[in-house]
Amino acid sequence: MKPSSTPAERGTNGTNAGTNAGTNAEASAGTRAASHAREPHLKRTLGLPSVLLFGLAYMAPLIVYGTYGVLAGASQDTAALAYLIALIAIVFTALSYGKLARLFPVAGSAYTYTRKSFNAHMGFMIGWATLLDYFFLPMVIWLIGAAYLGAAFPHVPAWIWIVAFIVLTSGLNIIGIELAARFNIVLMIVQLGIAAIFVVLCLHYAAAAAGPGGLLAAQPFFQPHVPLSATMAGAAIAAYSYLGFDAVSTLTEETIEPEKNIPRAIVLIALLGGAIFVIAAYTLQLAHPGAVFKDPDSAAFEIARKVGGDIFVTIFLAGLILAQFASGISAQASVGRLLYAMGRDEVLPKSIFGFIHPRFRTPAINIAIAGAIGLIALKLDVATSTSFINFGAFLAFTSVNLCVIRQYLSGAAGTRGFGFLGGLVFPLIGAVTDIWLLCSLEKTAIALGVIWFVLGLAYLGWITRCFRRAPPEMAV
């Protein structure tokens, strides 16, 4: 992350509007420009394959197994169709992200796009909604990891695993995690390998139980007694697995030909991730028809033992926990730095959120806050927690689609190539689908999301003196 403005620049944006301030700003403009030219810039070294690997690693493919039991129950055993519906919404949204990444070829986000397409106040609220994802994502990751360790070691209380995750990841993030980042690609390859073995074992088990013809069953996608509302409820949870498909937009300034490669990468990551999730859910349902498990939060653990025995269970559990641990480190590091950016740019109190540890040079207070928030996992289950953070994701996704429509209808420079379908029809389909998924979330999750949004609106009113001035700007 980088500051969106220096303190002097923020002073020229309205806080000191007097003649002296204006004169000083003009006098220092050349100095600031020269200084900016001397600042180090990110180096463009990433091609499309590297960006794709980063995006897939960020999504953590094994997450499909972490939430399968909850999703199967919510969708009434139509998990594969739920993932496919979620993929449709994600692909249309990914197309919109790609267009905006081409239109604004800088490290961006839904916050940035909304601010540029609409106004600063709407941008702030979408940023606040996005913060919901960042802020509570580590909690969900730790909760899923604890559920699977609890299934493997049932005599150990679940709270011990949650606290252990929080303490270890918080400690590593405060000290510094440069080494962990180097294993990101290796970890992704391991995850894909375990997922592939799981698929093969499920297919082998299903073929042995029902014959080769049983491998082409329609039940995972369609069951006449299951209402569409149940499948949509599952799709609202399934969207959690796709979170991060847009993360490569943050690599725009380090990517070769970003106007071409970033949009392609965003769509390809969504499609590849969706293919993995649909295939995994389909084969899991073939091996274990029905949505009845001893513990829905660790259903894949039960299926792994069923199709692969104790040896595969050990391999699967080790891979899943390793993936969850590494994902938790990345997620907590991300929220720590997002809070730091907000504190540095005085969106949040700078004395707390803008603090950097003098020795470790990390946002230690923010990391500790994220760890403390993770303790909420002691009182939540996987279904509620994933739905909760999806509330913020669906708001952000809807906003991105509306940004494309706004840019297209305004005739903004660079939108001529969108076309009627790309500029209006596709983003409209994406927006409607995202809103439908939002309304399909659990009532508890919707209520918590609305509370979060109202808190953000109240905070925005306070920092802007009842919306009479623009909120501080930040780069995320």
TrEMBL record:
InterPro entries xref list: AA-permease/SLC12A_dom (IPR004841), APC_superfamily (IPR050367)
Subcellular location: Membrane
A UniProt-annotated Pfam family: AA_permease
GO biological process, one term: transmembrane transport
Bias kind Low complexity: ranges: 11-31
Keyword entries, A-Z: Membrane, Transmembrane, Transmembrane helix
Membrane topology: Multi-pass membrane protein
Residue ranges of the region described as Disordered: 1-38
Gene3D superfamilies: Amino acid/polyamine transporter I (1.20.1740.10)
Domain Amino acid permease/ SLC12A, chain residue ranges per copy: 63-402
Entry's Gene Ontology cellular component terms: membrane
TM annotation in the entry: 46-68, 80-101, 122-144, 156-176, 183-206, 226-245, 265-284, 311-340, 360-380, 386-405, 417-438, 444-464
Transmembrane helix in keyword set: yes
Protein's name according to its UniProt entry: Putrescine importer PuuP
Species per Swiss-Prot/TrEMBL record: Paraburkholderia caffeinitolerans
Gene: puuP_2
